[in-house]
Write a structure and sequence with these properties.
heterodimer; A: 251 residues; OB fold (Dihydrolipoamide Acetyltransferase, E2P); five-stranded mixed barrel; 6 helices; 39% strand; B: 123 residues; mainly alpha; elongated
Chain lengths: 251, 123
C-alpha cells in the first residue's frame, strides 16, 4: 500500500500535508488580498458625486430649454436651488426626459425630483409622469444666450447622470459601455475639461448647430480627447458644440 | 465591419450554434449517451447555459461516447490532460491583461489648458 499522504475532507489532515495546506491557505489569502489592494490602488478616484437623497425631494419652477438636451433655467427656486441656476434633467434608469420636456420647450414648468451632485455640477432625476415635469402658470422670461467663441478643449465626454453621482466610478474607460448606453437613452452628455473653462469644469456637450451629440463622438466617450467647438453660455450653463472632425485622442 | 461588430457577430454565431446543439443534446443526445438521464427532465434546462458556451466539447464527447471510439475512462482523459496547461495559461493571461491594461491607459491631461480660438459674436 502506498505511503503517499492522502487528504480526506472529513478526517484530520495527514502530517506531511499540513504544512503544504497551511502555506497554500496563507499564500492564497495574502495573494488575493494583495491583488485586490493593488488593483484598487491603481484605480482613479471616483470623485464625490452622489444622489443627494439627504436633501429630500426638490421642486422648482423654471424655463425649459431644449439645447437639444433638456435644461431648466430656474425662475423660482428653493433653499438649495437658486433662481438663475441652470441644470440638466434626466429620468430614472438610463433614460432622459426629452419626450416630456419637448412640449414644454420655452415655457415655464415645474420640475420635481432628486438631485445628483458632483462639485458644482448638479442634475435632477425627475419624478415619473406629470409629477416630475408639468407646465406652470406665468410668463417665461427670455434666457440669456452669450456666445463665447470657438474653443479647443481637452478632457473627457461622459454621460451626465453617472458622472454627477449615479455611478461610482461614473467616468473613465471602465465606465464607457455604461456611458454610451446612457447617452443612447437620451441622458445629457457632459464634457469634463482638463482645466476650468470660463470658471466651469463641466460643460454640456452637443453637436454643431445645437444638434444632438453625433454618433461619431460615441467612439471617443470615456477617453481623453482634444477637440474644437463653439462655446455658448445659456443661462448659467456652458454648452460646447463639439466639432467631431477635430477630435483627437490625447497623448 | 469593425472589430467590435466582428466580435459581436462571432459571439452571436457561437451562441446560435450553441443553442441548436443544446436543443439537440437535451432532447435527443443525453438519452443516447447517459442512461441515468433517461426519464429525468427537470434538470435538463440547467445544462443549456453550459452547452451554449462549450458546445464543441459537448459535440466531441457525444461523438466519442456514441461511436464507442474510446474506452469509458479514456473518453474523459484528453480533456483533463489539458486542464493543467489551461490553468497556467489563464493565470498568466489574467496577469498580462491587467498589467497591459494598466500600462496602456491614458493619463488625465491635467496640464493642458483650454485655448480660445476665436471671440464670440453677440447674438
Amino acid at each position: 500500500m502506498s505511503e503517499k499522504p492522502f487528504f480526506v475532507g472529513y478526517l484530520p489532515a495527514p502530517g506531511p500535508l499540513r504544512t503544504f495546506l497551511l502555506s497554500a491557505c496563507v499564500l492564497l489569502i495574502a495573494g488575493l488580498a494583495g491583488a485586490g489592494f493593488l488593483m484598487g490602488a491603481a484605480q482613479d478616484d471616483p470623485g464625490p458625486g452622489a444622489f443627494r437623497f439627504d436633501y429630500g425631494r426638490q421642486t422648482v419652477v423654471g424655463v425649459v430649454e431644449m439645447t437639444p438636451y433638456p435644461v431648466i433655467h430656474v425662475v423660482e427656486g428653493n433653499d438649495r436651488i437658486k433662481p438663475g441656476d441652470s441644470f440638466m434633467m434626466t429620468a430614472g434608469g438610463k433614460s432622459g426626459v426629452d419626450g416630456r420636456a419637448m412640449p414644454l420647450n420655452g415655457q415655464l414648468a415645474q420640475v420635481s425630483g432628486v438631485v445628483l451632485e458632483r462639485g458644482d455640477l448638479y442634475m435632477m432625476q425627475v419624478r415619473g409622469g406629470r409629477n416630475g415635469l408639468q407646465a406652470a402658470e406665468g410668463e417665461a422670461p427670455e434666457i440669456a444666450v452669450e456666445p463665447q467663441g470657438r474653443w479647443q478643449l481637452t478632457g473627457e465626454i461622459c454621460d451626465g447622470k453617472c458622472l454627477a453621482g449615479a455611478m461610482r466610478p461614473g467616468r473613465g474607460l471602465a465606465h464607457k459601455a455604461c456611458a454610451n448606453l446612457c447617452l443612447l437613452g437620451d441622458v445629457p452628455p457632459i464634457f469634463v475639461s482638463s482645466q476650468p473653462v470660463l470658471g466651469e469644469e463641466f460643460l454640456l456637450v452637443t453637436g454643431p448647430g445645437g444638434t444632438r451629440l453625433p454618433r461619431e463622438a460615441y467612439d471617443f466617450v470615456a477617453q481623453y480627447i482634444t477637440a474644437e467647438g463653439e462655446l455658448t453660455r445659456r443661462g448659467d450653463l456652458l454648452v460646447w458644440e463639439i466639432d467631431t472632425d477635430t477630435i483627437e485622442l490625447s497623448e | 465591419m469593425d472589430v467590435a461588430q466582428a466580435l459581436v457577430m462571432g459571439m452571436q454565431t457561437w451562441g446560435i450554434i450553441g443553442a441548436l446543439v443544446a436543443l439537440l443534446f437535451i432532447t435527443i443526445g443525453i438519452d443516447r449517451i447517459d442512461e441515468d438521464a433517461r426519464g429525468a427532465y427537470i434538470f435538463r434546462p440547467l445544462l443549456i447555459p453550459g452547452v451554449l458556451l462549450i458546445w464543441p466539447i459537448v459535440l466531441w464527447r457525444w461523438w466519442q461516447i456514441e461511436t464507442e471510439r474510446a474506452a469509458w475512462a479514456d473518453r474523459y482523459r484528453p480533456v483533463r490532460k489539458g486542464y493543467g496547461l489551461a490553468v497556467i495559461a489563464m493565470s498568466i493571461g489574467i496577469v498580462v491583461i491587467v498589467i497591459t491594461g494598466l500600462s496602456v491607459r491614458q493619463t488625465w491631461p491635467e496640464d493642458i489648458t483650454p485655448v480660445q480660438l476665436s471671440e464670440g459674436a453677440s447674438k
